[in-house]
Design brief:
The complex is a heterodimer of chains A (about 625) and B (about 600).
Chain A: H1 2-31, H2 35-67, H3 72-81, H4 89-138, H5 141-146, H6 149-191, H7 193-240, H8 242-247, H9 251-304, H10 309-350, E1 372-379, E2 388-395, E3 400-404, H11 411-418, E4 426-431, E5 434-435, H12 441-447, E6 448-451, H13 462-467, H14 475-485, H15 488-493, H16 510-524, E7 528-532, H17 540-554, E8 558-562, H18 566-570, E9 574-579, E10 582-587, H19 589-595, H20 598-609
Parallel strand pairs in A: 3-8, 3-9, 6-7, 7-8
Antiparallel strand pairs in A: 1-2, 1-4, 4-5, 9-10
Helix pairs in contact in A: 1-10, 2-4, 2-6, 2-10, 4-6, 6-7, 6-10, 7-9, 7-10, 9-10, 14-16, 16-17, 19-20
Chain B: H1 10-45, H2 51-100, H3 103-109, H4 111-118, H5 120-153, H6 155-202, H7 204-209, H8 213-269, H9 273-322, E1 343-352, E2 362-370, E3 374-378, H10 385-392, E4 400-405, E5 408-409, H11 415-421, E6 422-425, E7 434-435, H12 436-440, H13 451-460, H14 464-469, E8 477-478, H15 487-500, E9 505-509, H16 517-530, E10 535-539, H17 543-546, E11 551-556, E12 559-564, H18 566-572, H19 574-583, H20 586-591
Parallel strand pairs in B: 3-10, 3-11, 6-9, 9-10
Antiparallel strand pairs in B: 1-2, 1-4, 4-5, 7-8, 11-12
Helix pairs in contact in B: 1-2, 1-5, 1-9, 2-5, 5-6, 5-9, 6-8, 6-9, 8-9, 13-15, 18-19
Classes of the chains: A alpha/beta (about 625), B alpha/beta (about 600).
Chain lengths: ~625, ~600
């Protein structure tokens, strides 16, 4: 049992590294256009790291020049002659000039590297966002019907943000960290192996300690994040249901729940913070241990005459560099983990299956009349559960088709198929004798005006919302249409009339939103119409307005109406009765009543009850 | 910012004081370490030193370093206790405060804003305590102390250090001046990008239907470019800081050694061997002090970026905590005298406008509803029918006039008395995560203990049917947002939750519109049978839902324009006739 678990864990680890390397490959492909710049960053970082490691060695020389007068033979000479050797200032300045040169060079190189990297990261993130936004239009609708919008949104913004930070920070830090770590070690061993071993030992002791604490810290941090998540969830829920809590007098109850979670959060967040401070104090201690080791061992060695003071000074700087690069590599490890997770989610979306390419399709309708034929249509969302089986029906130009059925009967499926949001399993839908599957999707969309129950507005002026994608529409046309749907007087009363920007602050009622989308469809003026009738949340007067507006929209257009209203159903040329996903009855109102089937039951029970809503 | 710290407990102040003392101790210890280095250097140079003397100094040094670590760990413990405890207390306070808010306050702040204030903002303040303790307290102590040490070692070196600090500070100030305005607009640009992407996603069907792909792409590109440009500027600024820090950190030791060379050479020129030796030892340790000074200033300047955010967060928390409730309830139950009249709800000349609004939403509302009656409110959107109900529950307080329940003004009831009297089903059916049982028996500690009452309520609410089909029936889980039950089921459960409480008055604020007509009718019949003595107030859109009510109150633009039965209103109330005729067929209107 335990073995099995272990194997699983190992497999998971492998998967992780595999995924990481896969992602790096994909990212590399993405970065290809900027390869030159990336090489520049890598090169400048490489050189500046080397220079940074060289400079302690030169500092050591400087110290040795300064210490030269104190050498034993010089002191002895002083005792004899009373003449004390001076510091060779020319030599000091000679090395000093090189060091100044190095500092200046490092400054310039680092500046170039960071500046360039910032730009690369920015451009890359922007491109990722653009590509993901474009991808939204290329994946089939089924993707968004099964995937939460917030999730996709979070990929476009949060995950790109995380990846951006990783690239921006980690790339330079990892290159310089690795170079410095290796060269510092090499330099230390070249200068003096005993001192090098001392520094290494001190570093390793420190890191063993850090490793243990870091593992503990991670655990507490994770716990803290989890508890914080739970608390936020609870607060969100309770504040969102404030009225429910109040009307049920459950304040005490929810507060007790909150305190329970909050106390757990307190424990874990204290532990997390404490562990964090242990970690950072440990880091300081590590630095100090290294200094002590180098100082003491160095002093003893100097005392024996094995090394000079310059070497101590040099090593003090080297252990600093060594510990610093080790620490920064450890930090980057965490950043990289987050970056890998983010890039997973980004590429998961970018590589999601797309709709079929349609460039070769040539289906075209000359002057649209609007005859629609469903020819032996079969469709299912899920291959195992066929929904529409062998549906055949012909709709004459300019006729009205009502789609009725209880809630959840699948009335929107017809919309999905007509608009080719989903593809048929077999059969065909023909408009004026042309199979819409042979047309480009864009050309199919152009055939239809669409008004959905779920009204969609965006932040922009009233005018922009009505015109939407149509070019060259004058204000006069918009006003005319708004007069026709009966909402002109309202828009006229807004502070900036048709230029009023619709935000959270200028809120339209459900009915007004519906009227606006009808106006939008009128401006669009396509030959066929898909219409979802008004909701129950609209008051009666507005309802009448909407109905009148919809009637106007239907004139002369072949219309498919998801019907909630008696009047629509009664005068429809064809009624499609749907239940549990399938079309179970077809006919006119009278025919269906006569047949005394599902529709008759539906109709009679509501008539019996005096409401004209088939479903709400 | 400072105001928020008055929420610290007394004990916490003790911990804070203790923490400051330990910080001072740890700084003192850490600054001793270079001192030992100096000793060691002197020992090496001095003739006749034993190796063991060096080892002893080394041990001292190690011990000091260890003690320094222990003290910082203690500081970490103290600051962790204070910060986590402070966060915990603040969260409870804000939560409790929000729970005491009325609807006016909640809407004034908005729910998302309250959520941020109650969670993220508090975390921010919590962080400033931990980080601030380390930097805001430690760095100044370190900076001052280390600076005095620096001056002790020699003026020339001190000047070099000060110049380095100056260069760093000037760079940081310049960067902040240029980059901060950009940093301020970045969140707005990010929001804009989010908004455009969200609109695109939520309107995907419309975008497709209108072939507006390119249009949306253009909009996104604009927001995207704007964000990138601003981000790039701000980040370039920050990118130029690091090379400056790097060059200072390299140049400072170099300057110290070069200056040292001159100082020592001068001492040698004066044949002062002892002085030149001491200078050499000082030089070796000076770099250590100097770096400490520079680092302290660097840390402090980073707080400049972090602090403003924390200040804003603290202000936002204070706003919630200091908000005075406009609505108060008597603490204790008043006037037991029961001159009972048989009238359940009475409005006398009630006017209402929202706080800070100019126009009245309700004007001169008068009606009485007797015990056990079913009263319905109907009217167009904005006619004020939901507002009438909100006044009864005191979600808002009337501006003038009188509202009485069971013969007593609603303002004499305690909050508990009032909520116990009224069962209120809201328009929007909100469930909380938990089980079906815990939602129906909402507020009860042990929901399963009330199973028979829960069953009765769900049975009445016509929810029994779908619950019994669930695998775990009443223990079935309701997820957050109740996404695992349909809208109709959610509404039935929310009605059951109200019925469970067995109140004297039941209010249904448009709660039936999400039900299909059959369930609607069954539910109303069940209520009539099993809650005969309970007064029922119903707001509805469908005439069919309310036509058999004892009393229908028709509202139009905030005024009562008709009171009576369905039949009477058809005859004498125009507004009602208009509503009814739009929903009912001619025959139905005629038959009533």
């Amino acid at each position: 049992m335990a073995n099995e678990n272990n194997e699983q864990a190992i497999e998971l680890d492998n998967l992780d590294t595999k995924m990481a390397s896969n992602n790096i490959k994909k990212l590399r492909a993405y970065m290809k256009p900027y390869m030159g710049w990336i090489i520049l960053v890598a090169f400048t970082t490489f050189v500046s790291s080397l220079l940074a490691v060289w400079s302690p060695n030169l500092i050591g020389d400087v110290v040795d020049y300064i210490a030269a007068p104190f050498a034993e033979e010089n002191v002895a000479a002083f005792m004899q002659t009373g003449y004390f050797a001076n510091i060779d200032m020319d030599a000091v300045w000679g090395v000093g000039r090189v060091l100044i040169g190095i500092a200046a060079a490092v400054f310039v190189l680092e500046f170039i590297a960071r500046f360039t990297m910032t730009d690369i990261a920015q451009i890359l993130s922007k491109r990722l966002r653009t590509d993901m936004s474009a991808k939204v239009d290329r994946v089939p609708l089924a993707y968004f019907d099964s995937e939460d919008t917030g999730n996709t949104l979070s990929r476009i913004t949060n995950d790109v943000g995380t990846l951006h930070r990783t690239i921006n920070e980690a790339f330079i830090a990892v290159i310089s960290g690795v170079i410095m770590l290796i060269t510092t070690l090499v330099m230390m061993f070249i200068v003096n192996w005993m001192m090098a071993l001392t520094a290494l030992a001190a570093g390793l002791i420190g890191f063993a300690f850090m490793g243990i604490t870091a593992a503990k810290t991670q655990k507490h941090f994770k716990a803290q994040q989890e508890e914080l998540g739970k608390l936020t969830g609870h607060v969100e829920e309770v504040f969102g249901a404030h009225d429910v809590v109040k009307t049920n007098h459950a304040e005490e109850f929810v507060t007790r729940q909150m305190i329970e979670i909050n106390d757990r959060l307190y424990q874990s967040s204290f532990k997390g913070q404490f562990a964090m401070s242990v970690l950072s104090s440990g880091m300081g201690f590590m630095m100090n241990i290294s200094t002590v080791f180098v100082m003491v061992v160095g002093a003893v060695l100097t005392f024996n005459g094995t090394i000079t003071f310059g070497t101590i000074a040099e090593f003090l700087l080297y252990v600093g560099l060594f510990n610093q690069s080790l620490g920064s590599l450890g930090e980057q490890g965490m950043t990289m983990q987050m970056g890998v997770a983010a890039s997973n989610r980004i590429f998961e979306f970018l590589e999601a299956e797309e709709m079929a390419n349609e460039e070769h399709k040539t289906g075209h309708i000359e002057a649209v009349k609007g005859q629609v034929l469903f020819d032996d249509v079969k469709f299912s969302y899920n291959p195992e559960v066929p929904i529409i089986k062998n549906f055949t029906a012909a709709v004459g130009a300019g006729r009205k088709v009502a789609i009725v059925g209880p809630t959840g009967a699948g009335k929107t499926t017809i919309v999905n198929l007509l608009m080719r949001f989903y593809e048929l399993n077999s059969g065909a839908i023909m408009v004026d004798g042309v199979d819409i599957a042979t047309m480009k999707r864009e050309d199919v969309y152009d055939l239809f005006c669409m008004v959905l129950q779920d009204t969609w507005l965006f932040e922009g002026s009233v005018y922009e919302n009505i015109v939407y994608n149509k070019k060259g529409v004058s204000y006069e046309q918009v006003i005319e249409v708004c007069k026709a749907v009966g909402i002109h007087h309202y828009f006229k009363s807004l502070p900036d009339r048709y230029d009023t920007v619709l935000t959270d602050k200028v809120s339209l009622s459900a009915g007004q939103r519906q009227l606006l989308t009808i106006a939008r469809a009128m401006i669009n003026d396509a030959p066929l119409l898909i219409l979802d009738e008004a909701t129950s949340s609209v008051d009666t007067r507005t309802e009448i307005l909407i109905q009148q507006a919809m009637d106007k929209l239907m004139v002369g257009r072949t219309s498919f109406v998801i019907a909630h209203r008696l009047s629509t159903i009664k005068n429809a040329d064809m009624i499609l009765v749907m239940n549990e996903g399938d079309i179970i009855e077809i006919g006119t109102h009278d025919e269906l009543l006569e047949a005394d089937g599902f529709y008759a039951g539906l109709y009679n029970s509501q008539f019996d009850f005096g409401t004209d809503e088939a479903s709400a | 910012m400072l105001k928020i710290f008055k929420h610290l407990r007394k004990k916490d102040w003790l911990l804070v004081t203790l923490g400051v003392a330990f910080i001072a101790l740890s700084v003192w210890l850490e600054l001793r370490i270079p001192g030992y280095m100096r000793e060691i250097t002197m020992l090496v140079q001095a003739p006749g030193t034993e190796v063991s003397e060096i080892w002893i100094q080394g041990l001292w040094m190690l011990g000091t370093a260890f003690m320094a670590m222990i003290t910082t760990v203690i500081v970490g413990y103290l600051s962790g206790r204070v910060a986590a405890g402070f966060g915990r207390d603040l969260r409870v306070k804000v939560f409790g405060k929000v729970m005491s808010f009325g609807m006016a306050e909640v809407n004034g702040f908005s729910v998302p804003s309250l959520i941020t204030r109650g969670t993220n903002d508090i975390s921010m303040v919590e962080q400033i305590i931990t980080i601030g303790f380390m930097t805001l307290v430690r760095s100044p102590i370190m900076a001052v102390w280390a600076t005095t040490r620096v001056f002790d070692q020699g003026l020339e070196w001190a000047i070099a250090t000060m110049v380095s600090v100056g260069v760093l500070l000037v760079t940081i100030v310049i960067l902040i001046i240029f980059a901060l305005p950009k940093f301020k607009i970045i969140p707005k640009l990010t929001d804009r990008l989010n908004l455009v992407a969200r609109e695109h996603l939520s309107g995907i069907r419309v975008v497709k239907a209108y072939n507006a792909k390119a249009h949306e792409a253009e909009k996104f590109e604009k927001a995207n470019h704007e964000l990138m440009k601003t981000n790039r500027f701000a980040e370039r600024m920050m990118a130029s800081l690091w090379p400056v820090v790097g060059v200072v950190m390299q140049a400072l030791p170099l300057a110290i050694y070069l200056i040292g060379a001159y100082l020592i050479n001068n001492a040698i020129g004066e044949f002062d061997l002892e002085e030149s030796g001491a200078l050499f030892a000082s030089m070796m340790v000076f770099a250590q002090y100097a770096i400490q000074v520079v680092m302290s200033f660097l840390m402090m300047s980073f707080m400049l970026v972090f602090l403003p955010q924390a200040i804003i967060a603290a202000r936002r928390i204070n706003e919630v905590l200091e908000k005075e409730e406009t609505l108060t309830y008597p603490e204790t139950s008043q006037s037991p005298t029961n001159t009972y009249t048989g009238v359940a709800v009475e409005f006398r000349g009630v006017n209402f406008k929202y706080p800070e609004a100019d126009d009245y939403v309700l004007e001169d509302i008068n009606f009485t509803i007797k015990d056990g009656e079913t009263a319905a409110f109907i009217g167009a959107t904005g006619s004020g029918k939901s507002t009438v109900l909100k006044l009864i529950t005191r979600a808002y307080d009337r501006t003038s006039g009188e509202i009485a329940i069971a013969g007593k003004d609603i303002k004499v009831y305690t909050e508990k008395e009032l909520t116990d009297k009224i069962g209120y089903t809201l328009q929007k059916a909100t469930l909380l995560s938990g089980s079906i049982a815990s939602n129906v028996a909402f507020g009860k500690k042990d929901a399963t203990a009330h199973l028979s009452d829960i069953k009765e309520a769900t049975d009445l609410a016509q929810a029994e049917e779908f619950i019994s089909k669930l695998e775990q029936t009443y223990e079935s889980e309701i997820t957050q947002g109740a996404t695992n039950v349909s809208g109709g089921q959610r509404q039935r459960l929310s009605i059951a939750r109200t019925l469970f409480r067995k109140s004297d008055i039941l209010i249904f604020d448009d709660s039936f519109s999400a039900l299909d007509y059959k369930t609607d009718r069954k539910l109303r019949e069940a209520l009539k049978k099993n809650r005969r003595d309970v007064t029922k107030l119903i707001v509805a859109q469908r005439v069919s839902t309310i036509m058999d009510a004892d009393k229908i109150i028709v509202l139009d633009e905030g005024r009562v324009v008709g009171v009576g039965t369905h039949q009477a209103l058809l005859e004498n109330c125009n507004v009602y006739y208009e509503i009814a005729s739009s929903q009912l067929s001619k025959e139905e209107l005629a038959n009533g």
